[in-house]
């Protein structure tokens, strides 16, 4: 029997990374097994499941390179079928009518009263509980609307789903879902519950921990392939120490028995690192365009530098760029005289007595150099340090802060050569503006 899996989100306007992680695992499993990946929109909450929310969902999936192999199923269109199953359950005695909320009759599914209820989860193994710890539960409300449990099971059955891969917040529900399958007299799918995504404290990862929606990561400039790879490793590993895997490699290595049951820690640093790895694999033209776009969006004009300089700036900055959104901040000083100063770096490197005088002195030395290159500026700086009887660090750091605004960045002397003598000397001489800008 060929595998049929589904992603069954309830659209709410934003797509949480936990949900899309479930989509990714389903997609990988479908591609790995040569099966079908389907989308079922659980849009029974009419207030939240707006057309915009559904559009956002589809956009996020497309951005991550996942599409349903069949037309999406909209749960809200299937109410009559859900109610038909509920009525059949009442007729068979597996469910009954009862006025539970004082507002009218609900339909309630019976749970077993003795023994144990149990199932084998493809990720978590055997899961069981005593029947006496379960309770009969409503499947149709008194207003005639089907409850999630009923709709979810009936749709999984009708869509001929073979494996339900979803977050482990649904483990408890699965006892109920299996009971409805039993009542329908059909084989249930295999259930596979993915471990919870947790923060550094081991608590469920939420909005309070930082970006939690796919759209946030997209807006911050993360690449879809990097986010996909990162999320695929939240609860799964290929069985060796590979962390950067192409789509095809993931598809080949993915299997449910390699999914982990222990909580998956969301590590933003790792995502940022991974994004840098993906960024550097992009074609140079794509990187070039992204740098230009980001600079322009940051109010900077890349055409102020010559082509050769532009390429050299890219060579210098690409290895240091983990995400395109860093570009305007990290590269501003190449394109404007009004780059920002990091107050901490200014405090540490330019505030100390004598720092500005040293920069003046160095500006004079730089002005007298026959050629202004990475080599000549390095030599001149070393010689000045020696002449002043100070360590090279006492010059390197203040120079860096004065010409770039930051205590970190690419190799100082390459940077100086690219900026050119005129700009470097003007910045060294005008370094006191850093003190006033951070006052
Ligand atoms: N709509 C449910 C959710 O988003 C579906 C869970 C499932 O995959 O069965 O949590």
Describe the SSE topology:
Layout: E1 4-7, H1 17-33, E2 36-41, H2 51-63, E3 73-74, H3 79-92, E4 95-98, E5 106-109, E6 116-121, E7 125-130, E8 137-140, H4 148-158, E9 163-167, H5 171-184, E10 190-194, E11 197-198, H6 214-219, H7 224-232, H8 247-253, E12 264-265, H9 268-281, H10 284-297, H11 307-317, H12 327-335, H13 343-349, H14 355-367, H15 374-387, H16 393-404, H17 412-419, H18 421-429, H19 432-437
Parallel strand pairs: 1-2, 2-3, 9-10, 11-12
Antiparallel strand pairs: 4-5, 5-8, 6-7
Helix pairs in contact: 1-8, 3-4, 4-5, 7-9, 10-12, 14-15, 14-16, 14-18, 15-17
The structure holds glutamic acid.
Your description of this structure?
It is a single chain. The protein has 19 helices and twelve strands. The protein is mainly α and 439 residues long. The strands form five sheets. The protein has a three-stranded parallel β-sheet. A three-stranded antiparallel β-sheet has the order 4-5-8. A two-stranded antiparallel ribbon has the order 6-7. A hairpin with a 7-residue loop joins β4 and β5. α4 packs across α5. The longest helix is centred in the first third of the chain and has 17 residues. The site of glutamic acid has 9 residues, from β9.
């Amino acid at each position: 029997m060929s595998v049929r899996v589904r992603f069954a989100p309830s659209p709410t306007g934003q797509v949480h990374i936990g949900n899309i992680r479930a989509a990714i695992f389903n997609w990988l499993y479908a591609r790995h097994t040569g099966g079908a990946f389907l989308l079922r929109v659980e849009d029974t909450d009419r207030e939240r499941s707006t057309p915009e929310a559904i559009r956002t969902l589809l956009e996020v999936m497309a951005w991550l390179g996942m599409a349903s192999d069949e037309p999406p199923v909209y749960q809200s269109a299937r109410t009559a079928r859900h109610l038909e199953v509920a009525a059949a359950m009442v007729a068979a005695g597996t469910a009954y009518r009862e006025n539970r909320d004082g507002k009218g009759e609900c339909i309630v599914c019976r749970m077993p009263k003795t023994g144990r209820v149990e199932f084998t989860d493809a990720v978590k193994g055997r899961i069981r509980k005593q029947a006496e710890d379960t309770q009969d539960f409503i499947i149709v409300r008194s207003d005639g609307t089907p409850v999630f449990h009923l709709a979810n099971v009936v749709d999984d059955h009708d869509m001929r789903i073979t494996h339900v891969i979803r977050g482990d917040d649904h483990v408890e529900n699965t006892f109920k879902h299996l009971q409805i399958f039993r009542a329908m007299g059909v084989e249930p799918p295999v259930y596979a519950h993915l471990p919870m995504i947790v923060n550094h404290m081991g608590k469920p990862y939420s909005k309070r921990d930082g970006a939690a929606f796919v759209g946030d990561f997209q807006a911050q400039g993360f690449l879809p392939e990097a986010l996909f790879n990162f999320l695929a490793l939240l609860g799964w590993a290929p069985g060796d120490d590979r962390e950067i895997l192409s789509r095809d490699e993931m598809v080949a290595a993915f299997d449910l028995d390699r999914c982990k049951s222990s909580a998956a820690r969301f590590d933003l640093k790792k995502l940022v690192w991974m994004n840098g790895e993906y960024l550097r694999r992009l074609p140079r033209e794509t990187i070039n365009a992204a740098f230009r776009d980001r600079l322009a969006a940051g109010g900077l004009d890349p055409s102020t530098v010559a082509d050769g300089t532009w390429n050299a700036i890219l060579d210098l900055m690409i290895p240091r760029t983990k995400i395109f959104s860093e570009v305007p901040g990290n590269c501003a000083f190449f394109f404007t005289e009004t780059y920002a100063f990091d107050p901490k770096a200014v405090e540490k490197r330019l505030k100390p007595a004598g720092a500005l005088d040293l920069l003046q002195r160095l500006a004079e030395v730089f002005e007298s150099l026959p050629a202004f290159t990475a080599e000549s500026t390095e030599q001149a700086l070393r010689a000045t340090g020696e002449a002043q009887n100070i360590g090279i660090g006492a010059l390197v750091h203040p120079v860096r802060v004065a010409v770039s605004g930051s205590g970190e960045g690419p190799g100082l002397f390459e940077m100086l050569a690219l900026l050119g003598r005129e700009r470097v000397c003007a910045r060294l001489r005008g370094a006191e503006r850093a003190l006033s800008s951070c006052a």
